[in-house]
Structures are given as structure tokens and as C-alpha cells.
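Re: [help] complex structure
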Amino acid sequence: MKIHEYQAREILSEYGVPIPRFEVVDDPGDARRVAEEIGRMVVVKAQVHVGGRGKAGGVKLAKTPDEAHAHATAILGMDIKGLTVERVMVADAVDIESEYYVGIVVDRATKMPVYMVSAAGGVDIEEVAATTPERIHKHPVDPDKGLSAAEAQELAGKLDTRSHVVRDIAVVIEKLYDAFTGSDASLAEINPLVVTPDEQVWAIDAKINIDDNALFRHPDIAAMRDPSGETDDLTRAREMGLSYIKLDGDVGCIVNGAGLAMTTMDVIKYYGGEPANFLDIGGSSSPEKMQTAIDIITSDSNVKSILINIFGGITRCDDVARGFVAALKERPVGLPIVVRLTGTNAVEAGRILAEHGMKSASTMDEAVEKAVELGRRQA
Amino acid sequence: MSIFLDEATRVCVQGITGRDGSFHTRAMVEYGTNVVAGVTPGKGGQEMDGIPVFDTVGEAVEATKANATIIFVPARFAANAAMEAVESGVKLVVVVSEGVPTLDVARIYKRAKELGVRMIGPNCPGIISPGKSKLGIMPGSIHSRGGIGVVSRSGTLTYEVVDSLGRAGMGQSTVIGIGGDPIIGTNFIDTLEAFEGDHETEAVVLIGEIGGTDEEQAAEFIKAKMTKPVVSFIAGRTAPPGKRMGHAGAIIAGGKGTAQEKMDALAAAGVPVADRPSEIPGLLKTALGR
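Output below.
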């Protein structure tokens, strides 16, 4: 789960990372008040879940409270990549002498958290990784032992040479690791971590992604979810335990399992069609889930045909067939539907479909080809 | 032979009295799996279909000499169950549970490695050596014994491929779903290495998907170490970047982990890549010179 920059700042503050004073406001008058309280140059930043806020004009420096008011007025309500800005952060804009990058990710290859530090801070770190990978120092961290003070000191030494600055950076490095493990993050980074001309160390911009699997033990973080960047369909799907992504094509598909769902999209493309979505109904298959899935798919006006592709394992085909039949009875769909049900309890599923004058396709290829063809005739 | 699992494997089921645990225990027993024990904390001393239930895996191992365990407990308890399993003395731990926190998995993996325990999963369908034993949730009926090894990051997509193999009369030595999470206990390379050393396995099907670079690393291993033919399928070539496609591991980030990169790496290692799962049997026949 992504959280906003100001939320990441709040988490880092709790763990003792030095963060310049800030407040989040939704009104230009409040932006002026915060700027007055800070009493020096501030930065006004849009809080939306997209990258490239600066380029879009969503980040501005203000020398005076009046200027902060003006910037907040301009940024609030602004559209950045389809998202409306509802909140801005007003933060003390500290003077910058040096900018560094410190971050931690869960690394698939070493199966450990890996610390990354770079003296090339303040710029897109993926750009640095692509062009000058030697400027990023990587250090795997033993998940049992955690990060020792000596390791933090060594990493800090890759960034600066002044001993007391190195010491202060090492403290941030340790605290960021504590925040990473303490909040079950999959990514935690400070970019830039700055040193001011008077040699103070501050975390200026922070990004934390939380491991969805661990949200159950962090109700406070789970409550930070901001669905404003989410369409109604997506919210509905998520609440029903469906994994849904809208795409631009016209063949709607409902599949069990992520790998098979992606494959179904690929095979639709192979037969000359375009998938309208990714939709994984997951391991179980209640009638309500099927109903929701069909509702979501049919609310997309691009959809010309629907393909249901189920390979039963944990999912029982008869459950899917019952849910599907019940869903159609409740709300008939005026689009061609192709069903392919195989695996656990497929025979019983076939009987249920037959009672309603329907028949399962025997293979995925057959089902996909038919769905693409029927969709084309609708067009 | 087969890899990691055969008829001699003595299986313990963690979460045996739960809804999923009991359902799949019955399916495993019906398939012929030698289930010797179950574990549900607080229900020690009871039985499930004549299988003795214990409070801890340690007790189950002590009493029944179980040497493998499969975990069906809910996500929030799964990490503790897996750590307990890894430290109980068994040699194989299959974690079916979905939604185990990643940092917990990192800690369990490390412990498993120290103790020489093989962990498969989490968030995986398990492993089956057809005609011998099944330690997982896959439908047993679609599998048949033979010489094709299958390794996959997916669940139902694996069934799709196995079904295609069956239709083409190609049985399997072992089929293993390694799981879709960012950190998993057993990866492609571990499995390829085992298939290479297994005399019943003649050829291998590797089923990958977008996200990470595991397939690229597998391609390097195949090029350097594998003498047996490998064919492949990669799911997600139509997936848009930056979106998580169901599996936590299936996300294309920063231009890395695309299907195309993986297909290119595999092709460069001499591995034919199918456009559709139904093409896999034909590619295998060609690779095996039949």
C-alpha cells in the first residue's frame, strides 16, 4: 500500500528521524498560518499518489506567508495525472548544502532487506541505478540481527566525510531501518537526506510503501489508506476480495488465479482481441463475488463480450457455476458470455450450466477464440 | 525418482482441523499421500479421520516420525506456524497460506537455510509427484506419472499447463508451484538443479510471470548447467507497467521485470518460449526429438 509523503513523514518522526517542521492543510488560509508560524521560507507540496508532482507544478517554494497562500490556492484543486489535489503539505524549506539518498527495500534475490545509500541524492534514484550504478552502495541486512551501529556508521561514511555529520547520518540510517521493520514496509526511503550549511541533517522527502500482507498488524497504518486515487470499481473490487485492473480493450474476463488471469489476457491478444481488464476472483467463489465481478465488468461500456475462465483447484467449479447462474438471474447481462469451467467439481458445474441452457467450452483456446469472435460481432 | 517428495514422505498437516486443512487433508489422503499427523494448537489428543492430532509440530514429529509438513493456517498465524515447522526437525515445509508478512518470511527463510530445511512457498499450491504423493491443493486427477518436471510461480496456470500435458499424453515426474510472493523458500534455480539430477525427469517446463528477475537468473543457470531440455511460458506480456497483477511479485517496476525481457533471456539460453500454454507439449516433443 502506498501512503502519502506527509504520512511517511509522520511515521519517520515517530521513530526519531529529524524532519523539518510541517503541517498538512486543505485551505489556503491555513497554509498562510503555517508559513507564518514557521517564519521562514516554506515549500508547498501537493499530496497525491503520483510521481512527477514537481514537474506538474504541484511543488512550490514560498518566501512569504502571502506567497504560501497564493501557491496553496493554485495547487489545491489542481489535477495531477487525473488526480485532484485535496491536501497540501506546508513545510520548512531548509537550506541545502548536500543531498544524499538512503533507502531500504525487500530484495527478492538475497531474500533480505537491502540498504541502499548514494551520495547522488535529490534525483530519481532509478535514474542513478540505470546510468551510474556504481554510485549506489548496497548492503544486505540480516533480518534477525537487524542493522548494527557499526554497519550504519559504515554506510554513513559512504556519504560524507565530516565525522559529526557522519555520526548524525548514521543515526538517521539506524532509525530509518527501525521505521522500515516497525511499520512492515516493503520500501522506505529518504530522498533527499540533506545537510544544511550549518551541518544539520534533515530528511526532506520521504516515501514508504507498506507490505499489504502485514497491514493486519498495523491498523493505524491501514487507516491511512487514501482511496481518492481509486475509482469506485476498484474500491468495490478490493472490498470484495477481487483483484481488478481496468484496461482499454473490449473482452471482459473473470478468472481464478493471478497467473491464469494474466495468461487469459495474453491469449485474448494472441487471438486478435484486446482484454478489457485483469480480474482474479481469488481462491473462493461465493455468488456475491461472482455478482460483483460481473457488475464491475459490465459497468465498463467498452466491454463487448465476457469470458469466464476457471480452473478449479481450491475453487470449486460448481460454486462458480451457481454464483454465475444466480448473478445472471438477478441481473441479466445483454452481452455474449463464454464460460470455461474445468478442474474440481467440473462435472457438477456442467450440469448446473446445462439446466440453464449453457455449456462450458472445453479448452481455454476455444473459449478465448469464441469470446473474441463474439465481441467482434457486437462491435 | 522425483524431486523433494515421494511415497516415503511422512506428512504432517498444520491446521488439519480447519476448513481448508481438513478438506485438503482428505484430498491428499485419497490421492495416496502418507499423512501421519495433524497439528492444531489446543486440539492435541483428538483425531481427524483417524489421523492423530497434536498441539505442536515437535510433538507430531516425535510421535510419528513425520518428515514433511504442510501449512494451512490463516495468514496472521502462518509465520509462527512456519517458524515452528522449520525448527521441528522436518526436512520439507510447504506453506500454502497466502498473505504472510514479507519480513517474517525473510526471517523464516534464513532459519530454514541454517537448519537445512527446504521451504516451498508461501502463497503456493504445493508440490505433487504424480502417482506417489501430493503435498498441496492442486487437483490430483489432472496429473499423471511421467518424465516432465514442471516448476511455476503460479497456481491455476500450472493446472492449465499440466492439463495440456495430460491431453498430449505427457506425464510428470514432479510438479511444483513455488509461489507468487516477493520472498519464497524455493526458487526456479533450486528446482531446476534438482530436476537436472533426477533420473526420472527427461525435460522441464518453467512457467514464469512478470516481476522480479528470477526468470533471467534461471535462464543463466539453464545455459550454464542444464543438459536436459527446458521449455517455458511467461504470463503477463499484456500487463501494464506499475500495476500489481494479483501476485505481490507480479509488478513491473522501473522498466524491469517485463515479460519481453524474460522471454529474451530464456530464448538467449536456448529455451523455447510458448505463446500459449497449449503450445507447450509440442515444444517439448520437438525438444525431446519425438
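The first strand of chain A starts at residue 22 and ends at 25.
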